[in-house]
């Protein structure tokens, strides 16, 4: 799902990246970095960098979203936003169903086996289509452990404790 920079993960959620201006009147092409691009339609404000901007116009065009912001009324003004990340406060993240997690919540979790032995830390989430795969860096080793996000393998996720408990089959180790 949505990836976030480690420094931003606690405070804000990245939902897009500003591209080049579109047209003459200050629209900005936004590349969504969220599983919920429809969210832009109902939004009133968003952070662009550290600046909280008011959204005054939203249009969808192919795989991008065209946004207009209050105070950015020309192509030149809009170009100042190019390359900047769009974020929202963590409290504004789209709610997930029970048992679903954002990628930025999973990255950094400590991974343990069912006996409590440390296996490593999740450094990435691969989206394969059928199921996600957690990339676990094993301390003191150059190898990575790939853990499929399946109920038969992932026994528990505790964001509060910062850990994931897994049941590894012998061929996975």
Description:
By secondary structure, the protein is mostly beta strands. Helices cover 5% and strands 45% of the residues. The protein has two helices and twelve strands; from the N terminus they run E-E-E-E-E-H-E-H-E-E-E-E-E-E. It has helices spanning 75-79, 103-106; strands at residues 12-22, 27-32, 45-48, 51-61, 64-69, 85-89, 110-113, 118-127, 132-137, 144-148, 154-158, 163-166. It has a six-stranded antiparallel β-barrel. Strands 10-9-8-7-12-11 form a six-stranded mixed beta sheet, with no helix packed on it. A hairpin with a 4-residue loop joins strand 7 and strand 8. The protein is elongated. The model is unreliable at 1-9 (pLDDT under 50).
Question: Would you kindly provide a brief summary of this structure?
Answer:
The protein contains 2 helices and 12 strands.
Lateral arrangement of strands in the main beta sheet = 1-2-5-4-3-6
What percentage of residues falls in helices of 4 or more residues? under 10%
What's the number of helices? 2
Overall pLDDT confidence: 88
Terminal Cα separation, in Å?
26 Å
Q: Poorly predicted ranges (pLDDT <50, ≥5 residues)?
A: 1-9
Decide which structural class fits the backbone: mainly beta
Q: How would you sum up the global shape? A: elongated
Order of helices and strands: EEEEEHEHEEEEEE
Classify the beta-strand content into a percent band. Answer: 35-45%
E-strand count: 12
Radius of gyration: 19 Å
Largest sheet: 6 strands, antiparallel, barrel
